[in-house]
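queue> pop job 88
queue> type: inverse folding (structure -> sequence)
queue> payload:
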């Protein structure tokens, strides 16, 4: 029985946890998988309920955190090597940057036969200054050299990794899209919508515009806030904004709301322009209750929020970055604009806010697009096929 050691960055809400959990649960029974993950940040909500609900008991590496710390990282590296020595995996498969560095190097040092890394996103633009970006590219090239295969989660990401940033040759990269349990977004939409809108005192004529994700600079929530205000000034109907998530930018965004004249609250009973809901585990209620799902990022891998929005038949307005064009159908399920074109994003949001037929049409096309392409059963089949090929 082949053994897989799967290492993710941390147990926080997001695509990597779902991806790792479904692969741990749904790979063919001839595989034995151990799931290892680091610690979430204080501003993040735990995602351990995801793996626990699937009957998985992961190992938590308390020394592995998102931020670089030479002492913690060295301790985490030593523990990974010890786990490899005890478990004796045939494959070490890492997900995201920190475990990709520590886990791949440990696997290489311990002579693990197959080393695989999945890029859920990358930090090669819009994150750091040029010197730091150059360092990370150099590091990833070295790590790619000791990897058996690299997995990109979209064709766009494969092009970025191999051509734009020259991390490794395209022949070393497999494209395997993420997979999720999306059926829950189709169940009870009307009732979930009623529950969400009743909580925030929304009538059916009101428009709810939501953005889901970590509150960090790369997500560019300022564009969402500026656009929300701009559209509110041009539409007669009542519009409410929802920022779903939390993170280091929370206080900055609250101050930004005040500076541009948007009222905000975290209390659903308040009548304000915008609600900070923090983390919501039942995001299917948010999607059902919303009319438009937005994304304003400067860089993305495969945004889970847009896959889930389409699974819930919701229209999307987004920036055109990273792998987004592989996740949506431009002008069919989403209106896209360049990340530096504020006016285009605002006009797209205005179109969806004022054109009920367009908004409904974009939403209705989403489910048929994502239901098979991003299902966890397809993900498990694709990864098992890759494993089988590499273990021969």
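queue> result:
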């Amino acid at each position: 029985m082949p053994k897989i050691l799967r290492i993710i960055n941390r147990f926080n809400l997001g695509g990597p946890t779902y991806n790792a959990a479904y692969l741990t649960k749904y790979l063919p029974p001839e595989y034995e998988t151990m799931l290892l993950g680091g610690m979430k940040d204080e501003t993040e909500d735990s995602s351990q309920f995801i793996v626990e609900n699937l009957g998985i008991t992961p190992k938590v590496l308390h020394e592995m955190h998102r931020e670089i710390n030479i002492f913690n990282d060295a301790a985490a590296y030593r523990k990974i090597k010890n786990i490899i020595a005890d478990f004796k995996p045939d494959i070490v498969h890492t997900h995201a940057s920190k475990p990709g560095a520590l886990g791949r190097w440990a696997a290489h040092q311990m002579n693990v036969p197959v080393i695989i890394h999945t890029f859920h996103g990358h930090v090669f633009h819009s994150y750091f200054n040029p010197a730091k970006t150059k360092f990370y590219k150099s590091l990833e090239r070295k790590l790619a050299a000791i990897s058996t295969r690299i997995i990109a989660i979209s064709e766009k990401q494969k092009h970025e990794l191999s051509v734009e940033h020259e991390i490794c040759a395209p022949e070393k990269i497999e494209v395997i899209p993420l997979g999720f349990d999306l059926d829950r977004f189709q169940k009870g939409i009307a009732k979930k919508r009623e529950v969400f809108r009743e909580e925030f005192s929304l009538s059916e004529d009101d428009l709810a515009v939501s953005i889901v994700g970590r509150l960090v600079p790369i997500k560019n929530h300022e564009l969402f806030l500026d656009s929300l205000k701009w559209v509110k000034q041009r539409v007669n109907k009542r519009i409410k904004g929802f920022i779903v998530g939390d993170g280091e930018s929370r206080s900055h965004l609250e101050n930004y709301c005040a500076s541009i004249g948007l009222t905000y609250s975290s209390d659903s009973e308040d009548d304000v322009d915008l609600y900070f809901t923090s983390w919501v585990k039942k995001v299917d209620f948010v999607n059902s209750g919303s009319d438009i799902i937005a994304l304003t990022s400067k860089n993305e891998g495969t945004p889970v929020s847009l896959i889930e929005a389409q699974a819930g038949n919701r229209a999307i307005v987004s920036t055109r970055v990273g792998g987004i064009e592989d996740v949506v159908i431009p002008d069919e399920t989403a209106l896209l604009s360049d990340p530096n074109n504020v006016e285009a994003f605002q006009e797209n949001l205005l179109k969806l806010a004022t054109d009920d037929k367009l908004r409904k049409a974009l939403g209705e096309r989403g489910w048929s697009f994502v239901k098979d392409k991003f299902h966890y059963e397809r993900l498990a089949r694709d990864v098992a096929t890759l494993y089988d090929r590499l273990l021969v």
